[in-house]
Amino acid sequence: MGKSKVAETEAKFTQEEMDLAARHREELETLDDEEEKETLGEEADIDYEAKARETLERKKAKAARKRKNKIARDREKEIQLAQESAEAKKTSARTLELEAINAKLQKAGFMLHEIAADGNCLFRAVQHQLTLLGEQEYSHIELRKNTAEYMRSHIDDFLAFFVHNDKADPLTTFELHCTKIRDTSEWGGQPELLALANLLHRPIWIYSKDSPVIKTCDNPRLSPIQLAFHRFYYALGEHYNSVIPLHR
């Protein structure tokens, strides 16, 4: 082989080696670029997840603070309402009335004995008093029946209580009232107190806020039935309690 041919062959191999090296270099560069992109993508994914977690934690913390603040505000409101309610009770009509009646009773050596508020309070209170006095025991139902019968048999003593300006017939009103007193939980008042005092042959003393002790059919030789009259004891209206010795 001539020198020129050898030189040509060597040049060809050299060019091929150079081309191969160039391709190899390009492949490596391409691979590096792809790896770098993957790395950047992974870093981007990591950053995104971290930011998402951070945002979620911030939201959770904010929500927790809101809940805590709401609980604190609600508690403050409850305390404020309780304080306002306590202050209102101090000056409520019921409280003022109770204080006045209790003061009168304590001065006389007595105290209240609470009676249920079911429309039968007058008759239950009288029933309780009769037990204290050692008298014959009556149920409140029996007292109702006896009271209605006494009023009907002494109509002239009670009819005036039922004369009103509404043009209603007093006798009809009276009869209807007596029926209610006998058969229902109709509240008893002044007519019934008068009837009870007479049919039981006992004076009845009534303590109240604004009046001196009211004594119905008073008799100093007999121990009285003693009751307390309240206008504001319950929201439903007037009420009677029994009265007992202070140091019983």
From TrEMBL:
CDD domains: OTU_OTUD6-like (cd22748). Residues 29-45 have a biased composition (Acidic residues). GO terms for biological process: protein deubiquitination. InterPro entries: OTU_dom (IPR003323), Papain-like_cys_pep_sf (IPR038765), Peptidase_C85-like (IPR050704). Residues 26-45 are annotated as: Disordered. One of its GO terms (molecular function) is cysteine-type deubiquitinase activity. Gene3D superfamilies: 3.90.70.80. Residues 110-246 form the OTU domain. It comes from the Eukaryota. This is OTU domain-containing protein. It comes from Aureoumbra lagunensis.
